Each structure stands twice: as C-alpha cells, then as structure tokens.
Amino acid sequence: MAEEATLSFKHPDGKLQTVQAHISHNDLILNKIFKVEGERTVVIDRNPKGGLGISVKGGAEHGIPVLISRVFMELTNDHTQTLQPGDAIIAVNGKRMDNLMHDEVVAELRNCGPCVQLTVRPFEEAHQVLQLAGSSKASEVIDGSDRLDANEDLSRIPLEFSRLEFYYPGTSRLMMNEMKILTSSEKLAGFIKFASRAELDTYANQLTTNIIKSNITTLRGSDVRNGTIHFAGWMEQLSSAGGSQLSWIPCFVVISDELVYVCSKPPKHQNDLSTCKNVHQLHECLIRDHNLHNELFDHRTFCCSLQCDSRTRYYLSLNTKDQLQSFTLKVRKLTTEAIFKFRKHSYDCKMEDEGGQLTLSVDAGFTMIRHQDKKMLWSFKFSQLAHSFDDGKNLIKLDFQQDDGKTVQKVFSCVQAYHLLYCIHSFLLAKLSIFGINNDEMTE
C-alpha cells in the first residue's frame, strides 16, 4: 500500500467517511471524497481565442473535485446549454478527472483539442466553495483559474508525538483490523478501518516511521546527556503499578547514542529528558525479542523485554512485526556503536577479601587488577569465555577455556553484578558484529 490510499475513516463522533489519506512528513492528511449523483455529458467548442469560456476552482489537494465556478456565455459554445456553476468535472474526453489535482485538470482542459467533451455532475456543497470566489478577485477563464486556500476542506492530524492503538484478541478496545489515532495531547483523532491485517500493518508501518522521524526532529534541541537522539516513539508497557492486576499502559521510549529513556509521556520541552527518572546506560541493558524466542506473555504478539538490572525490566509491546524487528535491531546497533566508541569499561569487584577492578576491553578482553598493588591477577580474551553464572544477587562465576584446553573458573562479587553481566553481553555483541554475525540467540 502506498503512502497515499483510499481508506475508511471514522470520526470521534462515530461518523464514517471514505477519505483519500496522504502521509506527509509532519501530518496525516485526510481528503474528503464526495459522491454526487447525476452525471451528464456536455460538449464545448473551444472559442477562437483558445479558451473554453469557463473558470474552475478546487482540486483533489483540497479534498474536492475541480468545479466549474463561472460560465462566460459570450465565450462558451455549449451545445447542450446545460453547463452550470457548481458542476464537478468528472472526465475530459473520457479521461477521469475527479481525483486529480487542480493543475492537472487545468492542463488537460488547455490541451484537449478544439472540441471538448466534459462529463460533469452537480456537487452538493458547491455553494460553500463558490462563495469564496465572491470575496476574492474576479474569476478568469481557464488560463487563470481560481484556487482555494491550501488548507481548506482538509483534515490534518499532526504526526508529532501521535500514538496508534491496535485491536488485540480477547479485548474490546477496538474492532478487528482497525487502528485508533490519538494526538500528542491524547485526544482521539479517529479510527481507520482496513480490509485485512496485512493492509493495516503496511500502512501503520509507514505512519509510524514518519511519526518517529517527526518526534526526533522535534527533540533535536532537547537536553540529551549523551549524544544524538536516534529513536523516539510510543510503545505499551506491561505494568502492575495499579496493584496486583497486570495491565498495558503507554510509554514513550527515547534512545540516544548511549542512553535509554523510558518516559510516561513524550518529552515535549527541552528539559523534559533531563528530568526523566528512568534513564539507563545502553551498554548495560539486555534486549530480548520474545516473539523470536516464543516467550510471549499473553495475546500480544510483538513483544520484547529490556532488562536493565535485577529489579528493572520493561516488557514492551509494539504494533507490528516490522516495528519490533526495527526496534530491537536499532538497540543492538546503537549498543555496538557505543561499545566501539568508549572501547573499555571497568567495575569494582571483590575476590574473597581482596578488592579489585575488572576491565572489559574491545582489544584486551577481560582483565582483573588488584586494587592494593595494581597487580594483574588474570586476563582472558572474549573468545575464551565458556560460561557465566550468577546467584541473582552479587556473586558472579566466569568459566574460561585456557590454551591447554582446560577450563578455569574465576569467582568474584560485584555490587553492579547485572550491569556487569549485561555489559559483557554488549561487548560480545560488538565483537561478533566485526564478523557480521547477528547474534539473536545470545543468552544472558
């Protein structure tokens, strides 16, 4: 389905209308498609000066057909004498015009030959449109056609921070194959009905892509602690904030070069991101595609989890498979880029009664240094890591395979155990990317 499509749109008041929908950079534009009865054929001979003796107004860009706004009887040779102001031009010499832009119809009228066969029909709301002509300059013949204001008779839904909701089996929130559109202020803009789930997904993917781009553009001036914003969009998060009953609530996720922000609402002002309470280092998070691993929680099909520490885990739902894949790939790509940017990261650890520092390095792998005398206690490459274990608290065990084939286990504790384990995962992900490996099967 293209970015421009004919769709069924239901207004917040329940009124259903067929519209021509166009996705622009910043708006979803809904043009009304009018159905008027009484088509008839009118034949006009072009006058010696080259004109048709008519003035026209409107066009598909204004949500209406091109209309006859004036008929100059002294310049018109209408064989049937039935051409009237307010007639919609449906076809010119058999070529359909009712969904074309103003300039396209004018060009066709100018170049269609000395004898023109117009298919026209009355347009029921013509009087509202033609009233504008009386307050503007006088109508001219076809070479100087009237134009409407670019925003007239259009419904524009701003994409910036807008949110889409889908139907989910087992719920009564929406009808099947229906999409709900909410504005940035959570005001209902309307519903779009599709013939199939495939059509819904395709159009929603295009719309979501433009929403995210619009959000990123708006947030470029925001107070971001580390780097440029690469993702800014709505998801739904599984929450038990209201008690023991689990429910899905909207959340707004922003990702910069090194950080992940999980907000309850979009950061519309420059300082909103700086005050966000849920901020996590990208390289210390673990993302898992539950759709890929068949670990879905309920009827939601396209879910992933973002684990940040032992207590913080976001279970997120996206609307389509493509959106899920795009998000998880974006997180992994930005994580890899962050690792190669700073190249090493260190954590304070404790081995028996000795304090130490474990450094993860793209170049050197694992290196444990004793705090007291700065002596290197052990060092291994990432390729030597065989297994990792933890007790769910602070204790970590790493098994390394030595050059002689034997396995040695290193045991230590770390207050930031989960951050360390997820950081190891990020370094392994970055190292594998060198060989072009997309490691979706990496485990915690």
Describe the structure.
The protein has 444 residues and is an alpha+beta fold. The protein has helices at 102-110, 126-135, 197-219, 321-342, 417-433; strands at 4-10, 16-23, 27-32, 40-45, 54-58, 66-71, 77-78, 87-92, 95-96, 115-122, 154-158, 163-166, 178-182, 188-193, 231-239, 247-255, 259-263, 279-281, 286-289, 303-307, 313-317, 344-351, 354-361, 365-370, 376-380, 385-390, 395-401, 407-413. Strands 11-3-2-1-14-13-12 form a 7-stranded antiparallel beta sheet, with helices on one face. A 7-stranded antiparallel beta sheet has the order 18-17-16-15-21-20-19. A 5-stranded antiparallel beta sheet has the order 7-4-10-8-9, with no helix packed on it. Strand 23 and strand 24 (365-370) form a beta hairpin. The relative contact order is 0.08.
List the main descriptive attributes of the protein structure presented here.
single chain, 444 residues, 7-stranded antiparallel beta sheet, 5 helices, 18% helix, elongated
